[in-house]
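From the shared-data thread, chain only:
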Amino acid sequence: MFMGTYTHAMDEKGRLIIPARIREELGEGFILTKNLDHCLGIYPAEGWKKFVEAVGTLPKISSEAARRLRRFYFGNSLTCEVDKQGRILIPGPLREFAGLSRDITMVGVDDHVEIWDTAVWNKYNAELDVDDLMDELGALNL
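Structure, as tokens:
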């Protein structure tokens, strides 16, 4: 399970250090993709396989929403490997989608890690309505 928040700087070439704790849990050959909320997602191979299987249950032809979802995720995904310095290269189109600048925040979110521009993450966090979260937790009987 991925938890915690980590901040790092991305260099001018788009390379980002992945913290050792996250690297250990990701294992070899993890997936980098666009994610909802205009951030990026990193999924370990096994977690990505489960996601692909779940998406595979959606109608392939009859549902326009399912086709858009497939294009969004699979058309914007790539397998990543960490270099000797513990970094990954985030391609330009993914950096642009997420509005990534130099300061990056990585957030553990259970089965994956999200990559946010730090300013965007801070704004998102500041605007988060805790009362709404309490309502959601109440609906889950937590």
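The chain has one domain: 5-139.
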